[in-house]
Amino acid sequence: xxxxxxxxxxxxxxxxxxxxxxxxxxxxxxxxxxxxxxxxxxxxxxxxxxxxxxxxxxxxxxxxxxxxxxxxxxxxxxxxxxxxxxxxxxxxxxxxxxxxxxxxxxxxxxxxxxxxxxxxxxxxxxxxxxxxxxxxxxxxxxxxxxxxxxxxxxxxxxxxxxxxxxxxxxxxxxxxxxxxxxxxxxxxxxxxxxxxxxxxxxxxxxxxxxxxxxxxxxxxxxxxxxxxxxxxxxxxxxxxxxxxxxxxxxxxxxxxxxxxxxxxxxxxxxxxxxxxxxxxxxxxxxxxxxxxxxxxxxxxxxxxxxxxxxxxxxxxxxxxxxxxxxxxxxxxxxxxxxxxxxxxxxxxxxxxxxxxxxxxxxxxxxxx
Length: 368
Known about the structure:
Elements: H1 9-15, H2 17-30, H3 37-50, E1 54-58, H4 61-71, E2 79-83, H5 89-96, E3 100-104, H6 118-121, E4 126-129, H7 141-150, E5 154-158, E6 166-167, E7 170-171, E8 177-181, E9 195-199, H8 202-211, H9 233-242, H10 246-264, E10 269-270, E11 277-278, E12 284-287, H11 291-300, H12 328-333, E13 337-340, H13 348-367
Parallel strand pairs: 2-3, 2-4, 4-5, 5-8
Antiparallel strand pairs: 1-9, 6-7, 6-11, 8-9, 10-12, 12-13
Helix pairs in contact: 2-9, 3-9, 4-5, 4-8, 10-13
């Protein structure tokens, strides 16, 4: 057993176990397991917290992306510009609607989409851009939004890891169509899969509600073929218990991140933060040329670190039939990144011990 795990899901849920079981029991008693009142309650609560007009609960972060693209009319023959430094669902969701992902490289400092490369990826078939707020750090969304507006493209924000993050005081997911995950490893975590979509457009919100429910207009009428992408009532009930804690959880992550940045900045290369962004730090990433040796060293001392993600999307077998342009920054970065524990359950004494271990290792390496 790792002394300091990357994340401790049991610990978080144990702290509110009684409330969660009560919420589950209420659903068991009313029996509305599909589109029950807890789903509507969660959607309204998320809309208030994020400052968005409409929230549509769905089955997963991947479902959020695919349903968002279907609602925007993206399909076969279309191209969607995105990045390869992300979880694979960012691009495979594009394949699932029959469109083609087109990758641009990242900014070397932030590890996020380099908006200056968007013009060279633009073609007559481009319909949308999907920037990824990876690790809870917002992209520099302003120039991306401006590019989309200038070329009449849809802006779809991959916010799977970024709930609680802001750009210029505005929540991610509120600039375009936002796609969020509620996976157990996320900051607001279901006890299973879940996700949601944000939009300013009321008509699109209604379309998305049909799309997530096999095209049903009502119980007996189906307007078009679609998938079953609904958020379970049981998961919504659990998330309603957790939502009031989101602000404090994000604050804890931000505090860990600030301590890491101050302590590790002089000795390690850190991921740069976008100007005017307020990160939520679903992960805290450092970089080192001896990444694998560093992770092994930490493991020997009881600290679990991760890599998000060692294989860029364009190098995955699932994408091998879609040749991409050269992505040298992406390929260089994924060999050097290390994600440190940053969850709210991380005790400050554990964090400080991890910092001491990292600094000692760095000093030893510098003397060799």
